[in-house]
Every structure is written in structure tokens, then in C-alpha cells.
Amino acid sequence: MDQDTIAALATAPGEGGIAIVRVSGTDAEALLSRLFAPARAWESHRMYYGHIVYEGETLDECMAVLFRAPRSYTREDVAEIHLHGGSWAAQSVLNALYRLGARPAGPGEFTRRAFLNGRVDLSRAEAVMALISAEGGRAARAALRQLEGGVSGFVRSAQADLIALLSGAAAAIDYPEEITLEEAASDLEAGARRLADKLEAACDERGARIADQGLEAVLCGRPNVGKSSLLNALARQERAIVTDIPGTTRDIIRADVMIEGLRVHFADTAGLREGADAIERIGVDRARQAIAGADVVLAVFNASLPLDNEDRQLLEDTKDAPRIVVLNQCDKEMVLNPADFDDPVVVSAQTGAGLRDLEKRVAAYGAGAGESALTQQRHMILAREAAASLRAAADACARGEAVDLAVIDLQEALASLGRITGEQVDDKMIDEIFERFCVGK
Ligand SMILES: Nc1nc2c(ncn2[C@@H]2O[C@H](COP(=O)(O)OP(=O)(O)OP(=O)(O)O)[C@@H](O)[C@H]2O)c(=O)[nH]1
Ligand SMILES: [Mg+2]
Q1: Which pTM was predicted?
Q2: Segments in 117-180 forming alpha helices (H)
Q3: Residue 430: pLDDT above 90?
């Protein structure tokens, strides 16, 4: 089945400057030649101008290029036809290709072929998808590092460490006169723990989530301090209703803001106070839940009024949380003294003063996000599995068990690492990974 020639739209559907139809497989050149006649014989990696003609009808004016195997995305012969954007031309060219014998490509099938033909390892194939779906610069950079082989390189070095441990153990088993089993076991234990530490340090789930999905920042404070006004100012649009009536906001209102390549989800919440009506009480409960789940809490106070009990309670409740104290309404006469607070940001939602500082302080909570060696869930799970096997090997050595037993754990660790790059994979795993791709990639 993998010998079929496949075709799909490689660009996003809908209107656009150009639409690219991609064809891959042994018949790619023949199919392209049926629809498009270059002035001279096809030369690989060269763009040709011409017209796509099928059954006497000109379907589009286009540019076409042929990449002969193995110097192509899939390592098969690949043809790309650059058509005018919009769906009609691309669809009619695809229909012609299907009638001439190409098969519609499945999700991720081009990249899957690149993997099966050995052009990229699994972690690089996954990086292609991560790069396509990256929303912010931070996530895109992590994907690019992976695409350039960051993950493969990290895994290769861990595999080399493991193989060194395994050969040390083998030496002790084979040449007991050269190295005692006690020495071998203690070397093995130390080496296995070191490598387990390294693998665990390479996984930063929180950072990976923040780079990929964004940082949760929750605005909270008592009614009327200006939480909704701040949300609107940060979002640069009127998201939340602002009035001088305390208790205006009840539901959580969200706005996404891109700060230095990091997506930040700001949530504006109901003012925290007792004795509100039934609706507002639900809002206050939701606010408390949002605070508990936040990556950073923005505790907002009205700098032109003295602290009241609710303000003090909020300071107390959030003192151990990742928190930024925000003294708002600084355009009015300040009653609160910034020196009394722990590194506060002084702002005015009304004039915009201090907002840039606030953004920087928020973005600092995403510092380093997505910069660990591993950033994909699947890779982190396997690295942790490998680390667990290494710790089991170390524990076996520490208990004075036979080195052969530790060797089995080390081999398991090696197998887990092999699944990251795809040296040790089964078809089911490959299917699961590529099904998450989009068609045309
Ligand atoms: N002068 C001045 N007024 C502000 C500032 N921020 C908010 N206000 C005013 O304060 C009042 C309350 O603002 P909101 O943004 O609705 O306050 P809130 O904290 O969301 O209030 P609740 O939703 O009731 O909890 C409004 O009249 C705003 O115009 C500011 O920085 N300076
Ligand atoms: Mg509000």
C-alpha cells in the first residue's frame, strides 16, 4: 500500500495567494507529465511555468516542480503544483490526479513516508506537526529545535551513556578477575542514578504546557478595584463590562494576549467579598477556583483607598502562590505605600501607566518555558519510563542483587529511549502518531 502514489492539498484550504498540490510516489513524474508539459525535459528541483490541462480543458496557469527521489520530502519522487489560491483550481487538479490513478493522501502520510524511508526520525516527524500547530513564538521555537534534531541528539547521548553502563556490567560478568562484582555494582548504581537524574531534568511538563497552551494569569481582588478595567487595557479591547457598581463581574471573562511570543490567558473574576447575592456568590466561588489553578495570580488593589479586611484576606490567601501585587488607580492620589508591599507593580488601567511593566512581570512566569530538552508529552512519558527503569537497576545494585538483574532494567530503559526516536516502534504507535497530523503534511 505504501507503494501507491498519493496526492493532497499541501496548503491550508480556503482563499490564498497560492494553493500547492503535492504528489508523492513512483508515478509522480508520470502523473505530472500527463497534466503539465514543461518546455524542456524535466529537471529535478527546478520550477517550470505552464498550464495544467486535463481532457482538453485548461484548469489553471501554474508553476510546477519535480523533486526526484531521494532528494525530496518523502525520499520518493515528489511533484508540487503551485496553483492560484482558492479551492476550485486545486480541487479540479486533485480530481484529475485521482482519476489518473493517484490516491488521496491520509493525514500525515507524506511525513509518515519520510519517516518510513529514513529521512527523519520519529521525534523530527512529530516536530513538523508541532511547528504547524504552534500558536506562539515560544512553542514554535521549541518545535524548531526538535526539528533540527535537538531531541534526537539528546536521546542519542543518553543511549550512549546507557550503552557504556551496559558494557561495564558485561565486562564485570565476563571478566570477574579484572573487576569485582562489588565495584561493578557500585559504578553501575552511580551511573544509573546520574542518567536517571539527567532524563528527569530534561522533562519540564509545566514549561512545556505553558509554551504550548499558554500561561494562566488570574486577576483577582475585591469589587471595584479595577480588575475588569485592567483586563480590557491588557487585551486592548472592551471585553468585560466596567461600572462603578461593586459586583459588576460575575462570570469569569477571558482574554488572550501575546506577550513576547508567549500566549497569556488573562481571566477577570468576580470581586471577592462576603454577603453577595446568590449569583455573585457563585462567581466568587469560581474566582477562588481560578486562583487555585493559576500559573500566576494578579492580586489587584485600589491604591487610592486604604486596605480593608477583604484586601488583607487576599494578601494572606495568596502569599504562598505565584503572585504579583498590582496597585491600580495610581492616577488618583495614592493612599497605599508601595514600600509596604512585596515588589508591587503600580499601574493605572485608566491611563495605561505601568501596564508594560505588568506585562513583563507576567511574562517572567513563563521564562524558560519550552526550553527543556524534551517538550512533547509522548517523549516525556518515555524519558520518565527510562528513568524509572534506571532507578530500578540502581536499587537492585544497592540491594546487592546480581548484576544480570540490573542489566534487564537497563535494557528496558534503552527500549524506552528507542521509542522516542522511533528505532523501536510498532505499527500501532506509528498509526497513533500520524493520525494526529493534518492531510497534506
Ligand atoms: N481613575 C481610575 N479609575 C479606575 C481605574 N481602574 C478602574 N477604574 C474605575 O473603577 C470602577 C470599577 O472598575 P471595574 O474595572 O469595573 O472594577 P472591578 O474590579 O472589575 O469590579 P467588580 O467587577 O465589581 O469586582 C470603574 O468606574 C472604573 O472606571 C483606574 O486605573 N483609574
Ligand atoms: Mg469586574
Answers
A1: 0.77
A2: 122-133, 137-147, 150-174
A3: no
